[in-house]
Design goal:
Blueprint lengths: L2 H11 L1 H9 L27 E2 L1 H11 L6 E7 L5 E5 H17 L7 E5 L4 H13 L2 E4 L6 H11 L3 E5 L1 E4 L2 E4 L1 H10 L7 E4 L13 E3 H4 L11 E2 L3 E6 L9 E5 L1 H13 L8 E4 L6 H13 L3 E6 L10 H9 L3 E4 L1 H10 L16 E4 L6 H11 L3 E3 L11 E2 L17 E2 L5 E4 L12 E6 L9 E2 L3 H9 L5 E10 L5 E6 L3 E4 L2 E4 H9 L4 E11 L3 E10 L7 H15 L9 E3 L13 H8 L13 H16 L1
Parallel strand pairs: 2-15, 4-5, 4-6, 6-9, 9-10, 14-15, 14-16, 16-17, 17-18, 29-30
Antiparallel strand pairs: 1-11, 2-3, 7-8, 12-13, 13-23, 19-20, 21-22, 22-24, 24-25, 26-27, 28-29
Length: 630
């Protein structure tokens, strides 16, 4: 039987029965009364009347099933000689102790706790301790500066902050307490208590009466039990990392999210108990929430947490050594990480040094995976390399090649796979009408959304309707453009804003980047629109070259232009390809195309709070300004 086709058809034709079966895998505190989603456009929630607890699903139930001594969390640091492995029981006991400490300080059901931490085990402990109590966590990535942190404090209004004394970056230590002090001074909300995990690289100075040292306050606390919460109770609020305007707080429900994640671990990633899953991400991003913490643990897998980079900590072989050491079955990473590895080790000498017998597949997400990088990795791994597409708002994959639903479809380069069961993907034109297969349009999801998607925006239900449901009645608008080919493969070509209108011809920057990335010398590239007095807009390409390339930048640029003219045609109007040393990216690996576009158009711009290295943006800004003046 075709498991994928059967599952997908069932999920669309009878979603209530489909998700009833999936929900049967949860250990409910109280059964739900109604499984049906709300009416179109209303608050998004499933399994009304039921009560669950996410920490119980992630830890306690596995201990009850006799798996308490099996590995749950595997931590390694690329910055220092540090590693740690916690079993389900050890992690549960540590979480329960922190939860007890928090409860004695007044944290309970519905309270918000802000977590500002690096990728260390205590961050996972903090998240699970919150949900054990029924509190709502708001994780802010430790790389954010004081102004962005203060905005999230003002919006989430937490009762407590859990933090660490510092984070680690290549060649430097980043103290956290100065940022917290400045953020609290800027915020319009007073946080009465801060608990700090002291790290040996930087011991924080604590403010008397407000701050406590984790290592002193938590040990010996009476362990707190799991509190069952209503199915629609907010599990967390996660602020999207937009480059302008007010951050949007995506609210995730509890039961629907747990059902979806458990289903996805089996159906999409093909994993179950005793598997080892590694999502190479950070908490504070949706990948870290869904697939470094909740997804693997709820499914009974061991999850890997790595405090380090794909290259430079210490070299481009870090990922492969970690996979081999811990017998990782599935790696989830970002295309930009693979491109960085390919750039520093184009012959894949580090990769081919081991056979990686445990590895089943690599999944990529975060931005579009260029076919050249996918092919490079496939040829050397000889395993599936699967680009899949989802968003902070969806919480779990919208499209993929589902390894757990045989027969497995072949990977189609340039595509993000097929719609995952539960998601009714539709491509609409500007008038809201479906377009023929293969035609470009806006990628939308026909309502109702499946379990696990955003329930609302924090304190802004009207903003939720306006941002996601207002453009196409009856559909959720993803904001991405693309097409579905005649075989059902979904091709995500980038944000709607990344469609360039050249003399009336609509061109996708993703399509142009795909061609440029196929050049053997190119490591990474980005295409942006710049104003043109005749054509309205024309594309400008920026590219970095692979390590060890002897070809001159001038020659590489000339060949890229010829390649685009040959593959896309003269209509592309790509007249310039700038060879640069680096491209500005967010911490999650997305290239800052929008910011570069504003710089090139001489529009107001600012340094996004999510940027990984601000100096790269200053560098590109100088190049773009020189280009526009010439």
């Amino acid at each position: 039987m075709d498991s994928y086709l059967h599952s997908y058809t069932a999920s669309i034709s009878d979603p209530v029965e489909f998700w009833r079966e999936a929900a049967g895998h949860l250990d409910w505190f109280e059964p739900y009364d109604s499984i049906a989603p709300p009416e179109q456009g209303q608050r998004h929630a499933w399994f009304i009347g039921g009560r669950v607890n996410a920490c119980h699903e992630a830890l306690d139930r596995h201990i009850s099933d006799g798996r308490g001594d099996e590995p749950a969390l595997i931590y390694e640091s690329g910055y220092r000689s540090a590693s740690e492995q916690l079993s389900f029981r050890q992690l549960r006991d540590t979480v329960a102790e922190l939860a007890g400490c928090m409860a004695r300080r007044g944290v309970g059901i519905g309270d918000v706790v802000l977590i500002y931490m690096p990728a260390i085990p205590q961050a996972v402990v903090a998240m699970l301790a919150c949900v054990r109590l029924g509190a709502i966590h708001a994780v802010v990535f430790g790389g954010f500066g004081p102004r962005e942190l203060s905005a999230r404090i003002s919006l989430a209004r937490p009762k407590l902050i859990l933090t660490a004394s510092c984070g680690l970056e290549p060649g430097r230590v980043v103290p956290y307490m100065p940022a917290i002090e400045e953020a609290l001074a800027l915020a319009d909300h007073v946080v009465p208590r801060v608990i700090v995990w002291q790290r040996p690289e930087c011991v924080a100075t604590l403010r008397e009466g407000r701050d406590e040292e984790w290592q002193e306050a938590v040990p010996g606390s009476a362990p707190a039990p799991c509190h069952g919460v209503p199915a629609e109770h907010p599990l967390y609020v996660l602020y999207t990392s937009g480059t302008t305007g007010q951050p949007k707080g995506v609210v995730r429900d509890t039961a629907g999210y747990l059902v979806a994640l458990r289903y996805s671990m089996r159906a999409v990633y093909g994993l179950g108990q005793d598997s080892v899953f590694w999502a190479a991400s950070d908490i504070g991003w949706v990948v870290g929430h869904s697939y470094m913490v909740y997804g693997p643990l709820v499914a009974g897998c061991a999850t890997v947490m790595y405090e380090g980079k794909p290259v430079g900590t210490p070299d481009a072989g870090a990922y492969w050594r970690l996979i081999d050491r811990h017998r990782v079955n599935v790696l989830f990473s970002a295309p930009t990480a693979m491109r960085a590895i390919k750039r520093d080790d184009p012959e894949a000498r580090h990769l081919t040094a081991t056979e990686l017998p445990s590895l089943h597949a690599v999944f990529l997400a975060g931005e579009r995976s260029d076919p050249d990088t996918v092919r490079w990795l496939e040829e050397r791994l000889r395993r599936p390399v699967i680009d899949h597409w989802w968003q902070t708002e969806s919480g779990w994959p919208i499209t993929a090649i589902c390894l757990g639903l045989p027969p497995t479809r072949p990977v189609r380069h340039g595509s993000a796979g097929m719609a995952v069961p539960g998601y009714n993907v539709c491509v609409l034109d500007g008038e809201g009408e479906p377009v023929p297969a293969g035609d470009m349009g806006t990628l939308t999801l026909k309502l109702p959304l499946p379990p696990g998607c955003l329930m609302s925006l924090w304190d802004d239900q009207e903003g939720y309707r306006r941002a996601y449901l207002g453009q196409y009645p009856g559909y959720y608008s993803t904001g991405d453009g693309g097409f579905v080919d005649p075989d059902g493969y979904v091709h995500v070509m980038g944000r709607i804003d990344d469609i360039i209108n050249v003399a009336g011809h609509r061109l996708s920057t993703g399509e142009l980047e795909q061609v440029i990335a196929s050049h053997p010398a190119v490591a990474e590239c980005a295409v942006i629109a710049i104003p043109d007095t005749i054509k309205g807009q024309v594309p400008l390409a920026l590219a970095t070259l692979k390590a060890g390339i002897s070809q001159s930048p001038v020659e590489a640029s000339r060949e890229v232009l010829a390649l685009v003219r040959h593959d896309v045609g003269a209509v592309a109007s790509l007249r310039k390809c700038l060879i640069v040393d680096s491209l500005p990216k967010t911490r999650s690996g997305k290239i800052l195309r929008g910011t570069m576009r504003r710089i090139a158009a001489n529009e107001p711009w600012s340094v996004p709070p999510t940027i990984e290295d601000p100096s790269t943006l200053d560098y590109i800004a100088r190049i773009l300004e020189e280009t526009s003046s010439s």
